[in-house]
Amino acid sequence: MSEELNNKPNKANLLIEALPYIKEFHHKKIMIKYGGHAMIDEEAMNSTARDTVLLKYVGMEPIVVHGGGPEITRSMNKMGKEPRFIKGLRITDEETMDIVTMVLVGKISTEIVSKIGIHGGKASGISGKDSQLIVASKKAPHRITDEETGEEHEIDLGLVGQIDSLNTEIVQMFTDNDYIPVISPIGVDDNGNTLNLNADTVAGEVASKMNSEKLIILTDVPGVLKDPNDPKSLIKKIKVDEVDDLIKDGTISGGMIPKVETCVKAIEGGVKSAHIIDGRVKHSLLLEIFTTKGIGTMITL
Amino acid sequence: MSEELNNKPNKANLLIEALPYIKEFHHKKIMIKYGGHAMIDEEAMNSTARDTVLLKYVGMEPIVVHGGGPEITRSMNKMGKEPRFIKGLRITDEETMDIVTMVLVGKISTEIVSKIGIHGGKASGISGKDSQLIVASKKAPHRITDEETGEEHEIDLGLVGQIDSLNTEIVQMFTDNDYIPVISPIGVDDNGNTLNLNADTVAGEVASKMNSEKLIILTDVPGVLKDPNDPKSLIKKIKVDEVDDLIKDGTISGGMIPKVETCVKAIEGGVKSAHIIDGRVKHSLLLEIFTTKGIGTMITL
Amino acid sequence: MSEELNNKPNKANLLIEALPYIKEFHHKKIMIKYGGHAMIDEEAMNSTARDTVLLKYVGMEPIVVHGGGPEITRSMNKMGKEPRFIKGLRITDEETMDIVTMVLVGKISTEIVSKIGIHGGKASGISGKDSQLIVASKKAPHRITDEETGEEHEIDLGLVGQIDSLNTEIVQMFTDNDYIPVISPIGVDDNGNTLNLNADTVAGEVASKMNSEKLIILTDVPGVLKDPNDPKSLIKKIKVDEVDDLIKDGTISGGMIPKVETCVKAIEGGVKSAHIIDGRVKHSLLLEIFTTKGIGTMITL
Amino acid sequence: MSEELNNKPNKANLLIEALPYIKEFHHKKIMIKYGGHAMIDEEAMNSTARDTVLLKYVGMEPIVVHGGGPEITRSMNKMGKEPRFIKGLRITDEETMDIVTMVLVGKISTEIVSKIGIHGGKASGISGKDSQLIVASKKAPHRITDEETGEEHEIDLGLVGQIDSLNTEIVQMFTDNDYIPVISPIGVDDNGNTLNLNADTVAGEVASKMNSEKLIILTDVPGVLKDPNDPKSLIKKIKVDEVDDLIKDGTISGGMIPKVETCVKAIEGGVKSAHIIDGRVKHSLLLEIFTTKGIGTMITL
Amino acid sequence: MSEELNNKPNKANLLIEALPYIKEFHHKKIMIKYGGHAMIDEEAMNSTARDTVLLKYVGMEPIVVHGGGPEITRSMNKMGKEPRFIKGLRITDEETMDIVTMVLVGKISTEIVSKIGIHGGKASGISGKDSQLIVASKKAPHRITDEETGEEHEIDLGLVGQIDSLNTEIVQMFTDNDYIPVISPIGVDDNGNTLNLNADTVAGEVASKMNSEKLIILTDVPGVLKDPNDPKSLIKKIKVDEVDDLIKDGTISGGMIPKVETCVKAIEGGVKSAHIIDGRVKHSLLLEIFTTKGIGTMITL
Amino acid sequence: MSEELNNKPNKANLLIEALPYIKEFHHKKIMIKYGGHAMIDEEAMNSTARDTVLLKYVGMEPIVVHGGGPEITRSMNKMGKEPRFIKGLRITDEETMDIVTMVLVGKISTEIVSKIGIHGGKASGISGKDSQLIVASKKAPHRITDEETGEEHEIDLGLVGQIDSLNTEIVQMFTDNDYIPVISPIGVDDNGNTLNLNADTVAGEVASKMNSEKLIILTDVPGVLKDPNDPKSLIKKIKVDEVDDLIKDGTISGGMIPKVETCVKAIEGGVKSAHIIDGRVKHSLLLEIFTTKGIGTMITL
């Protein structure tokens, strides 16, 4: 028998190995937060989109929420507008909000939709403003204590919002009709104003509301690490009730805290498992879903 | 009987007067091209959105296509990018195309969606890239004859496209589920590139493909005028086979020519009537639909 | 701008004014009891039917119950049969019941159906006998005390019934298929006998069973009046728990008592509001539904 | 084995014998024209209704059209109105039309509906006015030649109509929802006027439009007889192309001519077979459908 | 009137007599256990199948479970394999199980399906292995006390199973699509092994799970007899709470005990009535369902 | 990065490589003829079943037809019945037909159904007798010329049939409800007799009738070979119009002729491609579908 034939069964074996995962997640909603490296360039976006389409074709129902911080900052710079942050939150005046919306909805979302289309999926972009998908309200101002004087003052974050309620009927319509919805993280308040939202939070809350099986957050780190300097120190599984201790002892720290908290909230809201994975690894999405060990950190009840 | 009571019947009478129009257009698709004054400011957009929602509530199925030239030019200026036109067509390099998309999809469309939401309608924005709604290809370069030398040369318009085919399944999904789709006039080519399209043309072609009853183009003129300087010289009705003569004798001229040609093509494609109306008149949409005479120019077979 | 154009916006404005009401009652069932002046002649019936069709076209689901006392009396006279009443209830022997049925089902209902058809609605007449819509039983005899002797005796009302149960499946089938059902107030007992029913009561009970939003009773008075001789003394709103006092102090008296009691029972059965309005005012139905103040008396929880 | 047991198998055998007919007509529409003896009294109506319900329960879709001449005449007499006929057609002035409608829709139809209900069927009465079921126009006046003078004059039949078109959507809605529709033979003209129609004709035309399998006309004769004085001379089967000869040679004569012509027209309109049967024979409907020989005259292609 | 006509009404009368039963069991599921004489030969099977098809055509939803002991024994003999039983249960080694499956699924079921097809029904055979319809597990070994020594030993029954759970989705799919499912009484365990099941038990449990109206067991005795030697001593009705006493006093004994217990369990599981009838009587199925007295023993709450 | 991680991307890459095939055959019917080695033992059947389930889970609609010659012969031997063949066709007397049915339907089909169930698919066995799926008639006797005498005589093949018509409604019901139908190749004639059919033929004809995308025949050879003794001489692709020449020149010979002819007929009946593949190669089904070159012979238009 030719060498070619000898090799082929391996390929088929791999498909067969994937079968239990395919069965387990058949007709299950998989919420994927696109962020970081996974959206960094043409090639990365193509790869992420292709993987998402594959999930759809093997019977899952992927839903995408995307971020876009770096691109927003780039566009602001181009328009001669200086970005300002406070504790990681972008201070958002009206002009900034306009730019945020244009970049998220008009640039990033249409690009993702386009990439999914190229790979054979049917996608459509929606923002939180579409049929009042995300109703939000302005966040309370940030309180800051002047370290020298001890005086407290407030810093208004501008048009930064928190989610009040979700009308996911439109998302359901898309998944029911075999579309992959791509959600931009902006909300609308009762007066029709646009508010800037945290994309991870949007992904988590929509995942809960839609009874998603999984919430997968694509990041630029391998996951939660015991030793932040050692990528091999990855913690593969965390139980929800271990999180507090891991925060206290500093294992989960910095920007990882809100991500893990979003995961915990999603799980408490009914999502079966939440995953923080490394978008820099090729096909990380597939590896996390289709292998026993996965490649990132999985948080469960 | 009190004066109040005496007045009230007038109101009810007006509703009753509207009944024949409501009946005639029940469950009929009405394609509305938003443009010009109708989108000029907060108040105008609110008014147009409110009228559109009313159409929905009395049983029609409005579909919106919007333009956005002035806003695009404004944004380009802000970004220090000089807009260039040739015969009314915007020369669109990649950077310009990015700005066009961001403004159309990310700014104008989300605003219209938001306004419709405020007035009680369910809207969702889609661009021609969503599930390959509008497949387009690059227009041939423009040929120009140097008046002095008589030499011909070509000017490449860049990413300006012409419509090749439409996949209106997504638009149908929206109207079937009681949504008002808001379409941004950009297309996607076979390689996933974005192309800039003429909004009137998009409105006309989608209207044909969706078997719309009416195509209504909101402009900043009263309609087709016999004497362009006399707004009272409005031509109320034009038959499709009269159009050629009206162009030849100069009655239809300038920017009105492509608009009328779009109307003619739509009617030949099955739309029952096309209307060019004055978006500056308050509630022009309702007046055109709900009064016998209408307020603009109606083109029919 | 021409005078004509100046006037037109008023018309559109009125449609826009109606929008909030249209939205509020979209897909809501509106039970309308036709009676009195609203059915008095060709013109009145046409007007009432046209208003009913309008409600249908702007998205409500009207259901009609009609009375017919005067017409029955007229037909009985024609046939040389003397009508007899006791406390407002028609004493109904078999021959009378035949006439009642023929007039209600065969004359009044077909006329209403016909008028609704002329104005573009799809209507169909049903009686309480159609697929056992209204199962009823004979009312107990009326007890009367002879004022002179103090003796009590009973007067048998004949085939006058009270409602035992409703099978509204057929009504639902009609509204689900965009028909306006027109219900004649006769019932059927367990042996298949026909029974004469009070039309207001039928309207109220069917409204409750069908989860109607509104019960509107068309009468020949402006509503509940503080001073029965002063039509300007109309009470616009009555709370259900104010009704007892208004009956005790005589404000609600005579024939108005059972009407108000029907309204109260309907509201307790889940109907949101009940309205007693003046069918003599043109378009009273529309004025009550589409204006803030309404024109009659509204009863609510 | 007991005598009782010995007898029982006969019963079961009969059910088994009926099986081929049940299968053949499963889900087939059977149009039944009620007339003559079958409606003559309480007992006859009960029997006819019970048979109709049986057809429904064994899977057929019966549709009923009823006549009512004798009852109309009786009611007219009661009201002191003299009935007048010309060549079998009732001259119908407006007052007569009112009586006709009241009797057909208000009396006969409600009684049939009631009887079907008692026997466990769901019925609902409709007339040709319900949602424009039967659109008709006035018949041309009758021309009569004075036998003495040879002069011709016209006699206006009044509100006697001929069918122009049918909107059977409502009938379909009923059969689709397991109702037995009971149709009264009156029509509506373009101005909403009621017109008196021949019940046989209505049955035939609705049967064609609804793609009925059978048209069964209940009469007071055994069927078409070779010798009108000998009930044993029944012709069991007639081919459509034999009809002309049978009329010419006088076998089919008098009131039988229009009945047979209605049958022929129905068959030409797609009905598989038409049956003229004797409503005086108990269960004639079942005997015609469930026995090989039938009991009346069957007309086929 | 001819003699023929005189006879015919009897036939129609019988259909009319059946009407109340037809109505009562319309759209009701009727579980029929085929066994004994009813399957003994070509003619008997034809008769049973024809009766089953009749039930389907008059609106019921029959489901068939069949046994097959004698046929299995015959086939085993043919293959030179000696059948062994212990207390009525077939000791089932692997080879025997193969034969059991082949006979039940491959011979008896296909024959029943074929017979139903010939008589105009749509049938399809399923076993408990189809889409895991019947999940079962091996029965515990039988304990036997040696009468002489008083020693206990166990006898392994082999592949004899008891039902653990049912997935009746496939049965529902068949009845919803107008098929008559024919179920062979074998089950599947968690490892995919086939297990031999008692057909009466399968019939009873599927009847409960499917909310059947009736469970009818065809046997070779008239039903439960007071005096087993006197077929006229049939007990027509037994209440569930009388069963214990009847077993204690020996009225119900031997092979009748498990049958009656299956009936009791089915009734406790929601089946309205269970019937043990004599398959040797022609049309016993119809006689039991369509006559007031029935022909066998009916067990109810 | 760990070695493990290095390997993983290969796995994901293979899934991604499969994507175009998954997309191409999404919701397409794939007819698979099980035969030969693929059914030879427990392990082979498990493997084939698992592959079939995978096809289902990645969105295809597999339909299975199985053969069973060797098993039938084995069972006949066990029962002391000598199998006889003429030109590859089994001479089938009634007793043989009984054994054939028992083995195909009762043994092989239930085993396949069971195996598919174990691997997570929902399967159900049907034979050509289920709701008259395959209506067949007896084949004409075989004519044989005595080589010595030159005399012709006929040999009756017994109950060997040819397909007359297919009622695939039941197959469609299964695929519509996400079941994998497993079809046994027996047919039913007009009298309800069972007929033995060629499994390849059944697969081909059902594939055509069901508009299958592919017909895949599992055999025990690599496909069509140029040199029958050299498995490396496989012909990968054959056009339908090349078949005649390949038969004439002896490339296609013996038992391969009817297989190829079945493929040709299927393609002429609308199947897009037919494949003869080697069931001895592990996962041959997946390799044929999911690799560009495939592993067997593909026949197309």
UniProtKB/TrEMBL annotation, chains A, B, C, D, E, F:
Major subcellular site: cytoplasm
Record organism: Methanobrevibacter arboriphilus JCM 13429 = DSM 1125
Positions that bind substrate: 68-69, 90, 196
Name of the protein: Acetylglutamate kinase
Primary enzyme class: transferase
Site positions (Transition state stabilizer): 33, 259
Gene Ontology CC terms: cytoplasm
This protein's UniProt keywords: Amino-acid biosynthesis, Arginine biosynthesis, ATP-binding, Cytoplasm, Kinase, Nucleotide-binding, Transferase
GO MF term (any one): acetylglutamate kinase activity
Pfam families with a match to the protein in the record: AA_kinase (PF00696)
EC code: 2.7.2.8
GO BP annotation list: L-arginine biosynthetic process via ornithine
Gene3D superfamilies reported in the protein's UniProt record: Acetylglutamate kinase-like
Sequence ranges assigned to domain Aspartate/glutamate/uridylate kinase in this UniProt record: 28-278
